[in-house]
Design goal:
By secondary structure, this protein is an alpha+beta fold. Helices cover 31% and strands 26% of the residues. The chain has eleven helices and twelve strands. This is Replication-associated protein G2P N-terminal domain-containing protein.
């Protein structure tokens, strides 16, 4: 269950929707055109990409598809379009208002054929903020060593190379980012992308988790159309990717602490599937330092399953000597863990 004190720090940021239209304009300002050939049908579709400026300086990225079934794709940051920045993610009701407003802005150049609730989602970004984190770059650096589940990982380091500003884990269908919000605004200010000093100060100690679901993955999660957002378990969806795929809720602690915890929890087990023995711990050490052992591959695989069942990874032996902490998704905070609490 989500902590009520941080409830407003979860929601939707960027959203892209696609819908059929009756007529496409001949030309838009600043348009860029591409032509695509469907190898199965032989049909040629023309994609026109442009930007439409709306009220309050909000810019909509618009893709228009000229084909036998013309479509328009709109992309916008929902909180930015409503409030001028994306510090606080939007809820489902705000999403509907923002898309209705965007639809009205674009109705001058396109004739929509679908109800707003029937617009197809081609991208949705779910955002969860963690507040009160004293050293975001150090925490992200420690999480960098935790392997994701079948995802590619990319770390963007701090300018001095001692920490991590952004940790990205991705597949073709979805991308997760965990990043220091204040550092992002500071980098924007250095690059001349507006005056973001106030935003950097306001988001000091804030780390954001963003889950970008592209069209196929969004549909797989039950988010096919805009109307699906009303009753969808968005918080639970984001939590599952955060924990099961990215493993961002892994405990960051010293090797001694993790080994002691695992030993206390599994010592004395007679179950052949997960006993911690000297052979299993030996395999853990060999893997940590990329050394080749004498056991045959099948036995090595058995040892690895054992230490994985015990919640251990080779990278744990290389971790820094830090106080045990864990990102608490429900609470939106960094939780300090005591050894006795975890071992209980």
């Amino acid at each position: 269950m989500q902590d009520s004190s941080t409830v407003h720090r979860f929601g939707i940021d960027t959203l892209a929707v696609v819908a059929p239209v009756r007529v496409l304009p001949d030309r838009l300002i600043g348009q860029r055109t591409k032509r695509h050939l469907d190898l199965k049908t032989g049909e040629i579709a023309e994609q026109v990409t442009s930007e439409l400026a709306g009220a309050d300086g909000v810019v909509l990225n618009v893709d228009l598809w000229r084909s036998s079934k013309p479509q328009v794709r709109m992309e916008l940051s929902v909180p930015r379009s409503l409030r001028g920045d994306n510090r606080v993610p939007a809820d489902a009701g705000e999403v509907l208002r923002a898309v209705e407003s965007a639809r009205e802005q674009t109705s001058e150049v396109v004739d929509w054929l679908a109800d707003t609730d029937d617009f197809v989602i081609s991208r949705v970004d779910l955002a969860r903020d963690f507040i009160g984190i004293r050293h975001p770059s150090a925490m992200l650096r420690n999480l960098m060593t935790v392997p994701a589940h079948r995802m590619t990982s990319i770390a963007h380091m701090t300018p001095d190379g001692t920490g991590v500003q952004t940790l990205t884990r991705q597949t073709e269908r979805h991308t997760s980012r965990l990043y220091d919000r204040s550092a992002m605004y500071t980098a924007m200010r250095r690059s001349g992308a507006g005056d973001s000093r106030a935003l950097a100060d306001a988001d000091a100690g804030v780390v954001r988790y963003e889950l970008q679901l592209r069209r196929k993955q969004a549909a797989h999660e039950g988010l096919s159309t805009l109307g699906d957002l009303h009753n969808a378990p968005l918080f639970q969806i984001a939590h599952r990717f955060f924990s099961e795929r990215c493993r961002f809720d892994s405990v960051v602690a010293s090797p001694t602490w993790k080994l002691s915890r695992a030993w206390q929890q599994h010592c004395g087990q007679t179950d052949a599937k997960s006993p911690l023995t000297t052979a299993v711990l030996g395999q853990l050490v060999l893997d940590a330092f990329h050394l080749k052992g004498e056991a045959n591959p099948r036995t090595q695989a058995k040892y690895r399953r054992a230490f994985e069942t015990a919640g251990l990874m080779p990278q744990d032996l290389l971790a820094a000597d830090v106080t045990p902490v864990q990102l608490d998704f429900a609470g939106g905070r960094l939780r300090r863990l005591e050894e006795l609490d975890l071992a209980a």
